[in-house]
Structure formats: C-alpha cells, structure tokens
Design brief:
globular, 199 residues, alpha+beta, Nuclear Transport Factor 2, Chain: A, 7 helices
C-alpha cells in the first residue's frame, strides 16, 4: 500500500507542475492586485519570505509600500520576453506606458524575477526603469525551421517568386511588404492593441 502511495505521488507530482500557471499569468495577477490597491492579494503571489517581511510592517509602512509600488508600475503591461530555466527561475521583461508625474506618457520596462516555490511560480522582485533593457535589442530566437521534405530532405518552403510578407527574402532586399504599422498614440487607458502599436 505504501509503495502504491509513493508511485502515485511520483506520477502526480510532474502533472501538478504541468498544471501550474505560467510565470506571466502569476505576474498578471500580482500586477492586477497591486493596481487595485489590494496589497494582501498581491502578496499571495509573492514569495513566502516577502509576505512575512510585509506582514511584520506597520499599517502605515504597508500603505507606503503599496503606493510606491503603484507609482512605479504602469497601469497595463505587455510581456516582451520570457526566460525560464530548469532550476525553477524565470525572468520576464514587461513594458507599459507610464506617466511618472511628468504629465506625459513614456515607455517603462519592468524586469520581473520569479521563483518556483511549492510547485507554483511566485514573484521575487520587480524593478521598473525607463531605460530599455539590453536584452530587447537581441532578436527573439527564431521559430523552429520548416519540416524537411521526406523525399529529398529539402525545406518545404520555396524561395522562388515574389517574397512573402515577413519572409527572409523581403528582409534581405530591405523592402517591407504589407500594411504600414498604425501610429503610436499614448492614452491614459490603453488596450493591448494600442500598446502593440507603440512597440
């Protein structure tokens, strides 16, 4: 009977990890709670050590910490880059429009460090800065190459004819094909499409 319990545990443990929310989903919940002014809810998505530290503070210190968090964060954000390591660490690079007391919106970038704790992703540290992180200058890794043709081992895509929008051939000639990118207009409340236009 004990052997059966151990086997079930070993089978169900990886399945529980697969069912865990992705790091960006946990950060979105943390961000939403912080912007709503619910520090206790935001702390549920943080590390246990951070929760304990915040619980030990006076009510006025907790309120000041929440206001500082809200001031530094944009109201909405877009995930720019995600890196997950097999050791239970994740780094998210997020961006969003931020006013910062200057009466005009400017882009701000957040570096979110996350750790796996008790089978769930938790926010460890978030640093916001108006300087674009250097990692965003590096192109994202390319998607997997097209499947090779079984008969001759050749790539399934053809390079003959007119270049396809977004193809390598269009980039090599320096021409951009397709519709022009919509104009970036910063607004007090921006939709995901508005933020995409401002990338």
């Amino acid at each position: 009977m004990r052997l059966l319990a151990v086997v079930l545990f070993l089978i169900l443990l990886p399945l529980a990890a697969l069912g865990a929310d992705e790091p960006e989903a946990i950060y979105a919940k943390f961000h939403r709670a912080a912007m709503a002014g619910d520090l206790n809810d935001a702390l549920t998505y943080g590390l246990a050590q951070r929760r304990a530290e915040m619980q030990g503070l006076s009510a006025s210190h907790r309120e000041a910490a929440l206001k500082m968090m809200q001031f530094n964060m944009p109201r909405a954000f877009t995930l720019e880059r995600k890196t997950v390591s097999p050791t239970g660490r994740a780094t998210l690079i997020v961006s969003g429009p931020w006013e910062g007391g200057r009466n005009r919106l400017e882009p701000t970038y957040g570096t979110v460090q996350m750790l796996m704790e008790n089978g769930a992703w938790r926010v460890d540290e978030v640093i916001w800065n108006t300087e674009k992180p250097a990692i965003l200058a590096i192109p994202k890794p390319a998607a997997a190459p097209a499947a090779a043709d079984k008969a001759g081992g050749k790539a399934a895509a053809s390079t003959k004819g007119a270049p396809v929008v977004g193809s390598m051939a269009a980039e090599a000639t320096g021409k951009k094909l397709g519709a022009a990118k919509p104009e970036c207009i910063y607004k007090p409340v921006m939709t995901a499409q508005d933020m995409e236009n401002c990338k």
